[in-house]
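forwarding from the other thread:

> can someone predict this with NAP?

sure thing
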Amino acid sequence: MRTLIVGAGGGIGAALAAALPAGSVTAIGRATDPAIELTDETSIAAAAVRLRACAPFHRIIIATGALTIDGRGPEKRLADLDPAILARAFAINAIGPALVIKHFADLLPRQGRCVFAALSARVGSIGDNRLGGWYSYRASKAALNQIVHTAAIEIAHRRPDAVLLALHPGTVRTGLSAPFTAPDQGFTPAESAARLLATLDAATATGSFLDYDGLAILW
Ligand SMILES: NC(=O)c1ccc[n+]([C@@H]2O[C@H](COP(=O)([O-])OP(=O)(O)OC[C@H]3O[C@@H](n4cnc5c(N)ncnc54)[C@H](OP(=O)(O)O)[C@@H]3O)[C@@H](O)[C@H]2O)c1
C-alpha cells in the first residue's frame, strides 16, 4: 500500500512519513523534487504528472497549512482584519488543498478502498465555535471542510470506495502551534501521526470531519 504525503517539511507531515514503512511513502513539499507550492497551480499539476509513475496511492494526505501568515498571527478582533492576510490564508489553507484534490484525485486506485485526507482544524468548525477570534484561520479551514465534503460527493461517482476526510490532528507541538501553546502542551508529532493513521485506516463514511480519535466534529 503506497502513501503520498503533501507537506513533507511540516511537523505533522514529516511525522506521518516517519511512521510508515520506508519505501512505501512518497513525501513532497516545497523543497522536494517534484516541488509543490500551494499558491502555484502549475507546480501542483506538474507534480501530479510526475507522480503518475508511482501511482496508485491508497492514502493521500495533505498535511500543509498555515496559522501565522507573513509574520502575522491570528486576528483577535474585527479591527485586526486585513484583506491581504485573509486572502493568503484562503490561498494556503483552502484553495491550495482544493487544487491538490483536483490534480491528485486520479492518483487514487480506480477500485478498492482508498483515503484522501486533508489536515483541517477543530477551530474550522462553525458549530463548535464559542470563543471567536482567529478569523482567517477559522474561515479558511471551514472553506477547506466544505471543499473536502463536496469533493467526496463527486469522487464517489467514479470511486465508490474512496473515503475523503477533513482531519483535526489535535494540538501538536510543531512550529505552527508553538507561538500559541505551552512547550509541553498537546501531542508530539509522532503521537498525532499514529492517531491520524489509525483514524484514516478505520474511517468508513466519506466526506467526514473527524478528530485524531476518529470522532466526528460538528461542521
Ligand atoms: N500543530 C497543531 O497544533 C495543529 C492543530 C490543528 C490543525 N493543524 C493543522 O495541521 C496541518 C499541519 O500543521 P503542522 O503543525 O505540521 O504545521 P507546520 O509544521 O508549520 O507545517 C506546515 C506545512 O505546510 C507547508 N506549507 C505552508 N505553506 C505552504 C505553501 N504555500 N505551499 C506549500 N506548502 C506550504 C509547509 O511547508 P514548508 O515546510 O516548505 O514550510 C509545511 O510542510 C495544518 O493544516 C494545520 O492547520 C495543526
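The helical segments are 11-19, 41-51, 83-104, 135-158, 189-202. thats all i got for now
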